[in-house]
From TrEMBL, chains A, B:
<keyword id="KW-0560">Oxidoreductase</keyword>
<feature type="binding site">
    <location>
        <begin position="12"/>
        <end position="19"/>
    </location>
    <ligand>
        <name>NADP(+)</name>
    </ligand>
</feature>
<keyword id="KW-0486">Methionine biosynthesis</keyword>
<comment type="pathway">
    <text>Amino-acid biosynthesis; L-threonine biosynthesis; L-threonine from L-aspartate: step 3/5.</text>
</comment>
<keyword id="KW-0028">Amino-acid biosynthesis</keyword>
<dbReference type="InterPro" id="IPR045865">
    <property type="entry name" value="ACT-like_dom_sf"/>
</dbReference>
<dbReference type="InterPro" id="IPR002912">
    <property type="entry name" value="ACT_dom"/>
</dbReference>
<feature type="active site" description="Proton donor">
    <location>
        <position position="206"/>
    </location>
</feature>
<dbReference type="InterPro" id="IPR005106">
    <property type="entry name" value="Asp/hSer_DH_NAD-bd"/>
</dbReference>
<keyword id="KW-0521">NADP</keyword>
<feature type="binding site">
    <location>
        <position position="191"/>
    </location>
    <ligand>
        <name>L-homoserine</name>
    </ligand>
</feature>
<dbReference type="InterPro" id="IPR036291">
    <property type="entry name" value="NAD(P)-bd_dom_sf"/>
</dbReference>
<dbReference type="GO" id="GO:0050661">
    <property type="term" value="F:NADP binding"/>
</dbReference>
<dbReference type="Pfam" id="PF03447">
    <property type="entry name" value="NAD_binding_3"/>
</dbReference>
<dbReference type="GO" id="GO:0004412">
    <property type="term" value="F:homoserine dehydrogenase activity"/>
</dbReference>
<dbReference type="Pfam" id="PF00742">
    <property type="entry name" value="Homoserine_dh"/>
</dbReference>
<dbReference type="InterPro" id="IPR016204">
    <property type="entry name" value="HDH"/>
</dbReference>
């Protein structure tokens, strides 16, 4: 048995992921030491209550409430406590003491990322965060290293397992959003308060992190346009299926040039229609996937579990091995390059395609009136499907129009929809969804 | 404009990938310098014939036939000439001179990998090879770094675009293998001599590389069991579709314990039945994908272009940025850890499932005889579908039996098939395929 020198590892938080990290660290101690060339000694786990019940059996003497002493005596600090404070403060303490930090805290990174990365750079410490986006899926490192010589054009990410589970279930079993959410809660895929997931807050945090990394630019969370899935009806899901699409909540990060010629980036989250033969359409259940379009590499996709204590712990351990190898040999970590600092463009400057479903009066001249309205707004219609309702109780005959547009600016499209809603021949705008992945 | 110090980069070979690497290096010079913190100066391109026609316009003064002088004056050497010699010799020269080396040469790595990695380790240089497996898809780095704290159990890879194109086309358009191959050749997806692809040699090289990396073990190319796709008939493809499978040529790397309790690894390549709802089944055309099953991370998949000059050049540039960052800051590269050195187990020690199609005499007692034969060999039958042939020209009635087995040892299964072929009630063994991905 070779004797290795030990690196001192502190763990902050013993929740789902933290407890798994601790038990994997203990179980694979020897194998990890061989891979790293140094031992990893888990010196303590900072928690609020030493005696709280845990999901995993861990030696009681590891637990402490004194996070600060633990941090100051460690080479590597793993922050898995979540929340903004005191996580932010602890991470700054760790970095300032020269320790490398590993975190899975997406809310913190999306909110205070620039401050944390700057602190790391100041002292030459490293901040790793593979676990913050898409759980077990290696995505931060491929973006940072593997695609480092390429130009990322666009990222389409299914980065929230709860909403993917709900939408997938609506598609595959024909239940309503409320029913699918109830099942998700029952199976543990949704939290008691599902707001962060279904309203897209979680996905928006991940979009901010991915866009910052992919485009070497600070993308503040507030600049991420966000729409959740609560407005998605079973009718929309069924209509999408008939038209050859699936509805997915996408985190979209895009490099684009706006109408004024400004080269910038856009980060946004909304439910969108994805063609059924797109690789993202085959991402079922609570799985995540990140689809990247790069200049030279073309399309690449990363797929796997987006959450789960054990799965996310794998990402933390990958970071831990990298951090430890760096301690042994020295060298670059995953520090951010934000040199590009492109402007973050507002939602109005992106171009996209819409699929608009209208209930219209079924009388001569309606189609011409609607076609004129699209033309007047500079939006080109690609497909138009009309079906007359079989609803005989209505005094006037009503038809349903499903209109697919060519790519147009978001502002033209929004203005078109507003004008459609105000037209007398349109009884109601039933659904407006963007189409992505074409 | 910041002035950076320059790193001297030598390129060996100006084929498809090499020419793209050179032109991307020149086109993105400034952006790469910002990302790295040092400039990359392409000091020369070693070729056999300076005046040979190239696919890409490159400055003529870069070309040289003097590879050795070029190598000795460089910080980083990119080997994209292919073949075993003189590529091996040049790489050893480069490493011994202290230069880092980037290669996309899978044949060389699968054959002389241990020698090259040892040479790199001796002098503290690094050998990068993301481009050697699955083209543009980041797979080497995720295996080496992101999953470094996890235990890989199994890898199922679609790592050869030509054969995936052929099999996919047989599935989607109902053509024969010969016709699909002709189309692949026409479209440039197959080479004039397609042997390396269709007989599985290319996939076997990649299996050796992936297994070595995933299991920290030397897996010699000769130990990779290899079957190509030339035996796959349209009838097998159609039968697979009816049974809910697609046929894919898989490179399989597996950690397993054999019947004697030996913990070892297996690397093998063969066409297999994959359930149609498995993520690998949705990998169409010439695309590649690598599906990894890990202890903690669960299932992750990496998908993208497996070949193509520009796409593969992206992987080379990713390695180049990593190598250059290491020169600037120092630190660990992608050097191999082979500490585990597990035994490589022969094909007979793996367990798998078979789907066996038999033409049998349609008379009483046949099913019982066949069922007894499976039982006598310790193989458990999971599904059995019988259909009577409508072929009225045969004097004796013939039936087709499709038998799906439970998991059993490869040796039991092989013995079962041999015994079936020798039984008088079996007219012929129509098809034997392994089932993977369950």
């Amino acid at each position: 048995m070779i004797e290795y020198r030990n690196l001192r590892v502190a763990l902050l938080g013993a929740g789902n992921v933290g407890a798994e990290v601790a038990s994997l660290l203990i179980a694979h101690r020897d194998e990890l030491a061989e891979r790293i060339g140094a031992g990893l000694e888990l010196v303590g786990i900072a928690v609020r209550d030493v005696d709280a019940p845990r999901t995993t059996e861990l030696p009681r003497e590891l637990f402490t409430t004194d996070a600060e002493s633990l941090i100051l005596g460690s080479d590597i600090v793993i922050e898995l406590m979540g929340g903004l404070e005191p996580a932010r403060e602890y991470i700054l303490q760790a970095l300032n003491s020269g320790a490398d930090v590993i975190t899975g805290n997406k809310a913190l990174l999306a909110t205070h990322g620039p401050e944390l990365f700057e602190a790391a750079e100041q002292v030459g410490a490293q901040l790793y965060y593979e676990a913050a986006v898409a759980g077990a899926i290696p995505i931060i490192r491929p973006l940072h290293d593997s695609l480092a010589g390429d130009q990322v054009r666009r990222i389409l990410g299914i980065v929230n397992g709860t909403t993917n589970f709900i939408l997938d279930r609506m598609h595959t079993t024909g239940v309503t959003l409320e029913e699918a959410l109830a099942t998700a809660t029952e199976l543990g895929f949704a939290e008691a308060d599902p707001t962060a997931d279904v309203d897209g807050f979680d996905a928006a945090q991940k979009a901010a992190i991915l866009a910052s990394l992919a485009f070497h630019t600070v993308v503040p969370l507030e600049s991420v346009h966000r729409e959740g899935i609560t407005g998605i009806s079973l009718g929309q899901v069924q209509a999408a299926t008939r038209a050859g699409y699936v509805i997915k909540l996408l985190a979209i990060c895009e490099r684009l040039v706006d109408a004024e010629g400004t080269d910038g980036v856009s980060a946004r989250v909304y439910p969108a229609l994805v063609p059924e033969d797109h690789p993202l359409a085959a991402v079922h259940g609570a799985k995540n996937a990140v689809f990247i379009e790069a200049d030279a590499a073309g399309d690449v996709m990363f797929y796997g579990a987006g959450a789960g204590g054990r799965e996310t712990a794998s990402a933390v351990l990958g970071d831990l091995v990298s951090a430890a190898r760096r301690h042994v040999i020295g060298g670059p970590g995953i520090a951010e390059s934000r040199h590009a600092n492109l402007p973050v463009l507002p939602m109005s400057s992106i171009t996209t395609r819409y699929q608009i479903t209208l209930a219209v009066v079924d009388q001569p001249g309606v189609l011409a009136e609607i076609a004129n309205l699209f033309r007047d707004h500079g939006v080109s219609v690609e497909t138009l499907v009309q079906s007359v309702a079989s609803d005989t109780e209505h005094p006037d005959p009503t038809a349903t129009l499903v209109i697919g547009t060519h790519e147009a600016s978001e502002s033209s499209l929004a203005a078109t929809v507003t004008a459609l809603a105000a037209t007398s021949v349109v009884e109601s705008v039933v659904s407006v969804l963007r189409v992505e992945g074409l």
